[in-house]
Amino acid sequence: MKLAPVDYVILALYFAFVLGIGWRLRKRISSSGDFLMSGRSVPVWITSLAFIAANLGAVELIGMAASGAKYGIMTAHFYWLGAIPAMLFMGIFMMPFYYGSKARSVPEYLKMRFDEKTRAFNAFSFAIMTIFSSGISMYALGLLLHLVLGWSFDVSVLASAAIVLAYTFLGGLTSAIYNEVLQFLLIVMGFAPLAILSVNKAGGWQGMVSRLADRPNMFHAWRYLGSPTENPMGVEIFGMVAGLGFVLSFGYWCTNFLVVQRAMAADSMSAARRTPLIGTLPKMFLPFIVIMPGIAALVLSKMHLGYDFPLKATGGPDYDQALTTLMAQFYPAGLLGVGMTGLMASFMSGMAGNVTAFNTVFTYDIYQSYIRPGAPDRHYLTVGRVTTVVGVLLSIAAAYVATRYNNIMDLLQLVFGCVNAPLFATFLLGMFWKRTTAHGAFSGLTLGTLAAVLTLSSTTAEGKGGWIANLYTFPSQMAQNFWIAIIAFTTCLVISIAVSMFTTPRTDKDMEGLVYGLTKVPHDATAKWYQRPAPLTVIVVILLFILNIWFR
Amino acid sequence: MDLRVPSGWFFTLVGLILLGMGLFAPHMGAAPLTTENVNLYSGACMLVFGLFLLLMAWRAAHPGKGSNP
User: Fold this and answer.
1) Rounded to whole angstroms, how far apart are CA atoms A90 and A87?
2) DSSP H or E segment with residue A473
3) Which of A447, A419, A524 is nearest to A106 (CA)?
4) How far apart are CA A311 and CA A118, in angstroms?
5) For residue A388, is pLDDT > 90?
6) Is residue A513 part of a domain?
7) End-to-end CA distance of chain B, in Å?
8) Is A502 among the domain residues?
9) Complex-level ipTM
10) What is the pLDDT of residues A513-536, one digit of tens each?
């Protein structure tokens, strides 16, 4: 594929706007709070879109189309079974504690609710995770631009990293959030035409179903979940609902500071609670843009139109190229530039999201807590800025670690399985059971994470894992990831409860604003109906049921 | 800064570029699998979206002055 001059004009125009936004916002930064937390002053429609855009990185965009081609519409479970219910839970039940506690980060909430060691554990593991996520995103983009456009891997990675660094360095979290929204709009605008064109060409939904008549399990999200052998993902219903739907998704959307941070930047408690709730509405329909083209690519490759499904150099389908090869087939010069810019935009929003979460956690939870407490705020602002640079450099290093795995989505899930899954159990207990003690939380969290690592080391799937022993072979990496999450979560839950029973809890007075039952949850009785969480949730749940039943 | 202003301008400009491509160079760099004038339709959509954002931003900045920019 070759880009025309007009495509480069669009790309350059976009970079100019992104940097311009960063430049305009630089004057808003006068304290570390402005830089790392947006001074809690961002309008709710912006935080809502940033909330989902920070997650819509290049990995998700490429990975979802890849999974669409590999697993079919079951991939939508990442949205309709996973993300949406978790986002609702987060807005309704968890946000009052995050926003109300005045914590500046998720690890800081753990410090307030439990103790220093629990915070330290989470801060360090989160810092490592953000760097890896950012690195994987960077790797995905660099590889793709190299394969598709013949650009040098190093140059495309370094150039986009430099732009992300420039605007996050200038305008901090606000700049990252504002650009994430522009990026989100561009991704939707740039990829919606591809979904429409490719699905139409493949004969619409019914046409795709009839053309892949030998693989009906590609078109049902629920029907073939009875046994792992029946569906392409190799997962059964319990692993899907408990592993992905409950543990992994709730772990990610409710405890990952990367997304929580966007909601915490909102200008009021009510806006912070509405952030994930409003975010569910566009999120719910993203599968049509990101998953459908993958399925269409598979169908088109069987229609003898001159389009062949991309192959790896070693043979076998290269799912990660499904999206870009389709763009080459459907986009003329001009829109191709918009699509490519959208792809780079997704990379940038993913990376900026990780870097801005990393610098906040490092500055407040590691540097201010353990390295140099009690310095003037100016000092922490400088540290925040320096950490932004360091975060970008570390991500570049992590990009090379990612080269060892073929399906990047699976690796990401693997990382989340070790960090987020047990953490969700800790938060569930910490926020809703006041008897939970600091020692209980800490031992549960560490042993839960250890359980995840041990499970990964002693089982295999698709030839990976099993470094210590091979006690069990999962039918797919997805199944392995889901079960690691279930095991880590359960271990954390059981250990935390057991240890809490034998240790002394804190007094009720110490936990006001931190635990359910000891916190006044605001009731927005005077707000208009669409500004209240309950009616918004009812609408989302109804839509969610319709989608799940439609594609059952 | 009202984010609708830069976003609105961005999509207006990109919309105009695509619309121009669709009108004046409909066969340039045409895509193998489609005969539609893809640039024309997408450009029109983006232009409308960009202008809509600018209108919303203008209304927010000038309350009570009617709805036309």
Assistant:
1) 5
2) strand A472-474
3) A419
4) 46
5) yes
6) no
7) 19
8) no
9) 0.91
10) 788 877 777 666 677 777 788 888
Rounded distance, CA A295 to CA A198, Å?
A: 9
For residue A52, give both structure tokens. 């989902």
Q: Do B38 and A338 touch (CB under 8 A)?
A: no
- Cβ-based neighbours of A221, under 8 Å, separated by 6 or more: A73, A74, A76, A77, A80, A81, A548, A551, A552
Domain at A134, CATH number: 1.20.1730.10
Nearest CB to A46; choose among B3, B30, B46 = B3
Record: contact B31-A178, CB cut-off 8 A: no
Q: Does the residue A349 lie in any domain?
A: yes
Q: Give the nearest chain A residue to B39 (CA atoms).
A: A335
Percent of chain A with pLDDT over 90: 29
Distance from the B11 Cα atom to the nearest Cα atom in chain A, whole angstroms: 8
- Host domain of residue A375: 5-23+32-416
Contact: A189, B36; criterion CB under 8 Å: no
> How many angstroms separate the CA atoms of A438 and A538, rounded?
36
Number of residues that this document lists for chain B:
69
Q: Closest to A329 (Cβ–Cβ): which among B7, B10, B31?
A: B31
SS (H, E, C) B22-67: HHHCCCCCCCCCCCCCHHHHHHHHHHHHHHHHHHHHHHHHCCCCCC
Structure tokens at B1: 């800064």
Per DSSP, A92 falls in state I
Count the domains in chain A. 1
**Chain B contact for A25 (CB, 8 A cutoff):** yes
Give the three-class secondary structure for A42.
strand
C-alpha to C-alpha distance for A43 and A268, rounded to whole angstroms: 9
How much is the pLDDT for B60? 85
In sequence order, which ranges of A459-518 are alpha helices (DSSP H)? 477-502
Instruction: Check if the beta carbon of residue A112 is closer than 8 Å to that of residue A100.
Output: no
How many C-beta neighbours within 10 Å does residue B22 have? 22
H helix or E strand, kind and range, residue A465: strand A464-465
* B38 and A CB contact within 8 Å: yes
**Interacting residues of A510 by C-beta distance below 8 A, sequence separation 6+:** none
Instruction: For residue A460, give the amino acid letter.
Output: T
Contact A36, A363 (CB under 8 A): yes
Residue owning tokens 């990612």: A402
Does A409 have pLDDT greater than 60? no
Asked if A177 and A274 count as a contact pair (C-beta separation under 8 A), the reply is: no
Predicted confidence (pLDDT) per residue in A255-285, tens digit: 888 888 889 888 888 888 889 999 999 999 9
A536 occurs within a structural domain: no
Pairwise CB contact (< 8 Å): A330 & B38: yes
- The pLDDT score that the predictor gives to residue A199 is 92
Single-letter residue type at A254: C
| φ and ψ at residue A313, rounded to 5 degrees | -60, -30
